[in-house]
Design a protein that fits this description.
Oligomer: heterodimer
Order of helices and strands of chain A: HHHHEHHHHHHHHHEHHHHHHHHHH
Largest sheet of chain B: 10 strands, mixed
Shape of chain A: globular
Largest interface: A-B, 79 and 72 residues
Strand content of chain A: under 5%
CATH superfamily of the domain at 67-240 in chain A: MetI-like
Number of domains of chain B: 2
Shape of chain B: globular
CATH class of the domain at 67-240 in chain A: Mainly Alpha
Number of helices of chain B: 15
CATH superfamily of the largest domain in chain B: Periplasmic binding protein-like II
Distance between the termini of chain A: 51 Å
Structural class of chain A: mainly alpha
Distance between the termini of chain B: 54 Å
Number of strands of chain B: 12
Chain lengths: 571, 343
């Protein structure tokens, strides 16, 4: 009802546009988007409801003790990870997209590899390597004859700085992937004009390419920050007390789920504010490419010291974010006596792959539906619902899982009660405790990822193209099928693959929601890793990483192939 | 487009449903377990149970959200029993109203009264002592004998612990509060914090590793980790570097202990099987597995400790009722915040 009214208002506000196009199916899109967004927002709403009923007011205690510390730590963590992912992601994306230097073709895909490495694993590995008892410090002590901690200074890996480093290393690929795709899709003409007008290469980056890529980069950094907020495994392991730690204290140790939900919502407010601020500062700027001259980018040939600097700049993130941790895991897996080679791997791996594929498909499909509906001159209601649907990403997985449980179980119990009354049969729990609940949870959690990618892709379809299609009598659905989908195929694939890889690594929601006797690679690793028995679970951990590599490589291809008018230039 | 997408989603949903296959619910010869304990710890016990009774066990393991899941699932929850560590967690389940009272002569005979709820809503299965691990090289035997001494300035910069918020440390602190009152307990915690060699981090094993590496001389840890480390080829050296000490609490002869336990779900669809499992886990056979495989102390007084566990020495458990520890948990958490123990 409201949707229709809203759509109507939208249409009435701009009657001179295509209000009277035949076969107008815009309203249907709005309704579909509202229903979908509503469903996806259910868990968040369930958390809001929980927050209304705390067992006691936790804020006075928190505010007088740990809250200021938690807030400062959280902000510093976000600042550090935000800056880190921006600099590494955008910098390397620019280098591989616009420059020529040794190893560039390898870096194009290799820079994505850290995506396959779960944050909690990289934290375990680096702690093993860099702590006082680790091989590096032991070697230093042996060489220099130091004996205790007081004899020398070494950065503490289990610290805020360590957490920022770990999260940056595994999260920068979001920014890299989105920024690179955008750089590649930019018309070379814009850059050539910039250079003709006397801008140097680097000024062109700053003045022209970056502003054009800003929406995509903003999406990437926002994703990294949301991930950073919902992360518990890494910060907990590093004894870094963020607001997420507060959520778990209040929930599990003070037995106050309502109070915990309140903290989670405050964190959410952080993110919403952040997204709003970014959008606001972009205000009404819209960038669309008006030139379709998209011949392959020649690239600036870097020479000598500059070329080596570029190679080094791209090597470091790949080496630290992927090669070192993967090699360490492989070493444990093949040389440690306590490594557990379980024959159940295959089953766990199939579970992981099946769930990831389903979640990727669902998230990409829903993202297309929502983003496209929003383009159909949707009103504030639809836009608001879509924003609400995509905030699940910033909520700690375990909390979100409870949010999924509540509506699912309520639905199951209602159906059961109804059928018992009318037909005298009991259906029990239909959806709760099944993989359906899991796939739904993943979709809710990772919708922001696919939505970001799809929105960035749709942003490049100019309104004039769309108007042309509509003027030629295509309905919104036909326009989507014949115009948008072919144009955003790359972005859609990128979004889907990102969700795939994220689902492979997902742990907390899986633990809470899974069916009986059901393991994924991540849950299997967790039962050992949580006991700091990294050697024991190294083979399974390696399997997660290996299973993540293929989609990451596909992702690299899809981003490369996304460039329209790209010739077979061997890149 | 929408149609093909719907088709694809439907298809993958069906594929997924087929993938799972076994959705456990009410079925003959099965029992459904929600476990907060790691699968590899309980697997040997469940295997023995199935071998003996022919009843198949289905397990979901999660460290958080189990009680919330049972609450949401309500009357239709497939859970038959909940297995957990820490009296606080058992108490949570009772308070959430997701468990039911069980009457069983077998359980009453096997589990002493102090290790079960008077109303039968939970039963402890094992006892674990919170030890002080002391460096063999740098701490003389007998140099520390009580938890209270951990706050002695002579240990400045020499103690390692995991997070003060961890269930095991919270329970110990709750015990200190019960014995000494809030003010003294808080002064003790502040004193302990002042003695820490590093910010609280890692798990109990990690603290012992830190002693071996010379980062600290004393650490707090549960007793069974000692056995687990001795059995692990990578970790034996850590355990070899320390002596386990059974400290006393509150001027008594008792050492602080906590429990792992079991409760029956209110909705239990397989009540008979659940009861059978509970009785089995308290039996001599299962209690012996707990003692030999997990290095925990059996609650069943008829069961002998494993020779290894025995070799660490006999001790007197603190006779503070478990319910007192559960009640003071929230007070303890707040105290950790006030002292800024983890900061």
């Amino acid at each position: 009802m409201t949707a229709e009214a809203d759509a109507f208002r939208g249409a009435a506000a701009a009657p001179e546009q295509f209000a009277a196009v035949p076969g107008d199916g815009r309203r249907r899109w709005h309704v579909a988007a509202l229903v979908t967004a509503g469903l996806v927002a259910l868990p968040v709403l369930a958390i809001v409801r929980t927050a209304l009923f705390p067992t006691e007011n936790i804020w006075p205690h928190l505010a007088s003790t740990v809250l200021p510390g938690y807030v400062v730590t959280t902000l510093l963590l976000m600042l550090g990870v935000g800056l880190g992912t921006f600099v590494i992601g955008t910098g390397t994306a620019w280098l591989v997209a616009m420059c020529r230097f040794p190893g560039r073709r390898v870096f194009e895909w290799a820079l994505l590899l850290p995506l396959a490495m779960p944050g909690y694993l990289i934290a375990y590995v680096y702690t093993d390597l860099l702590e006082f008892a680790g091989p590096l410090q032991s070697a230093l002590r042996a060489v220099f004859g130091w004996s205790t901690r007081r004899d020398y200074w070494f950065p503490e890996i289990r610290s805020l700085g360590g957490a920022i480093a770990m999260l940056t290393l595994v999260l920068y690929p979001y920014v890299y992937a989105l920024a690179r795709a955008t750089f590649l899709e930019q018309s070379i003409c814009v850059l050539e004009v910039s250079r003709t007008l006397g801008r140097s290469t680097w000024r062109s980056l700053i003045d022209v390419a970056l502003p054009l890529a800003r929406p995509a980069i903003a999406v990437g950094v926002t994703l990294a920050l949301m991930e950073c907020l919902n992360d518990f495994g890494t910060v907990d392991f590093f004894a870094v007390r963020t607001l997420t730690a507060g959520v778990f204290d209040v929930w599990l140790r003070m037995g106050n789920a309502g109070g915990a939900a309140q903290i989670a919502l405050v964190m959410l407010a952080f993110v919403v504010l952040l997204i709003w601020a970014e959008r606001r500062s972009r205000a009404r700027q819209r960038f669309h490419h008006t030139s379709s001259k998209l011949r392959p980018i020649e690239g600036i040939r870097l020479r000598g010291r500059k070329a080596w600097a570029a190679t080094l700049a791209c090597t470091l993130p790949v080496a630290l974010g992927f090669v070192v941790p993967a090699a360490t895991l492989a070493d444990y897996a093949f040389t440690s006596a306590s490594a557990e080679w379980s024959p159940d791997f295959l089953r766990h791996a199939l579970n992981s792959l099946g769930l990831s594929a389903a979640a990727a498909l669902a998230a990409a499909g829903l993202a297309t539906l929502l983003a496209y509906a929003a383009r159909q001159r949707a009103g504030k209601l639809v836009h608001g619902a879509i924003r609400l649907a995509s905030v699940g990403y910033a909520i700690p997985g375990a909390v979100l899982a409870i949010g999924v449980l509540i509506p699912f179980a309520a639905f199951d119990n209602a159906v059961d009660a109804f059928l018992r009354q009318t037909l005298g049969v009991s259906t029990g729990l239909l959806l709760s405790g099944t993989v359906a609940a899991l796939v739904f949870a993943y979709t809710v959690r990772f919708l922001a990822v696919s939505l970001g990618a799809v929105e960035a892709g749709l942003g490049r379809v100019t309104p004039s193209m769309e108007m042309a299609a509509r003027t030629l009598g295509h309905s919104p659905s036909a326009t989507l099928r014949r115009l948008h989908l072919p144009m955003i195929r790359g972005s859609l694939l990128t979004g889907g693959l990102l969700v795939f890889v994220d689902t492979m690594k997902e742990l907390p929601a899986t633990l809470v929601l899974r069916p009986f006797n059901f393991d994924t690679l991540a849950t299997f690793v967790y039962q050992y890793a949580s006991d700091e028995r990294l050697e024991a679970c190294a083979p399974a951990a390696l399997a997660i990483v290996a299973a993540g590599i293929l989609p990451v490589l596909l992702l690299a291809r899809s981003v490369g192939a996304a460039r329209p008018g790209r010739k077979r230039d061997g890149t | 487009m929408t149609r093909s997408l719907t088709g694809a989603m439907l298809g993958s949903a069906i594929a997924l449903a087929a993938m799972v296959g076994s959705t456990a619910a009410k079925a003959d010869g099965e029992v459904n377990i929600y476990s907060l304990r790691q699968p590899f710890l309980i697997e040997p016990l469940l295997e023995a149970f199935t071998a003996k009774t022919g009843i198949k066990t289905n397990v979901v393991f999660a460290k958080e959200g189990v009680v919330e899941r049972m609450k949401a699932e309500g009357v239709n929850s497939p859970a038959d029993v909940i297995l957990t560590v820490d009296i606080g967690r058992l108490n949570d389940a009772v308070e959430a109203g997701v468990v039911q009272a069980v009457e069983s002569p077998v359980l009453t005979a096997n589990v002493p009264a102090s290790f079960r709820d008077p109303e039968g809503r939970w039963f402890a299965l094992t006892q674990r002592a919170r030890l002080i691990y002391a460096s063999k090289e740098r701490v003389k035997p007998g140099e520390i004998t009580s938890y209270e001494e951990l706050a002695d300035p002579k240990w400045a910069g020499r103690i390692c612990t995991r997070s003060g918020k961890h269930d095991y440390n919270i329970a110990l602190l709750a015990g200190m509060i019960a014995h000494h009152g809030e003010a003294k307990a808080e002064a003790w915690l502040a004193g302990l914090k002042a003695n820490l060699a590093r910010k609280p981090q890692g798990n109990d094993r990690g603290q012992v590793k830190a002693i071996k590496e010379g980062e600290c001389d004393l650490a707090l840890g549960n007793n069974y980790y000692y056995g687990a480390m001795l059995a692990d080829p990578e970790q034996k050296a850590w355990a070899d570097a320390v002596n386990p000490v059974f400290p006393t609490i509150g001027g008594t002869k008792g050492t602080h202990v906590n429990v792992s336990g079991i409760a029956m779900s209110k909705s239990a669809p397989n009540r008979e099987n659940a009861l059978e499992l509970m009785e089995f886990l308290s039996s001599d056979e299962a209690q012996e597995i707990y003692a030999t495989v997990n290095y925990e102390y059996p609650v069943n007084p008829h069961v002998k400790w494993s020779p290894l566990v025995e070799s660490w020495g006999r001790f007197t458990p603190d006779d503070l009722p478990l319910s007192a520890i559960a009640e003071l948990r929230s007070t303890a958490v707040r105290m950790v915040d006030r002292v800024g123990y983890d900061g």
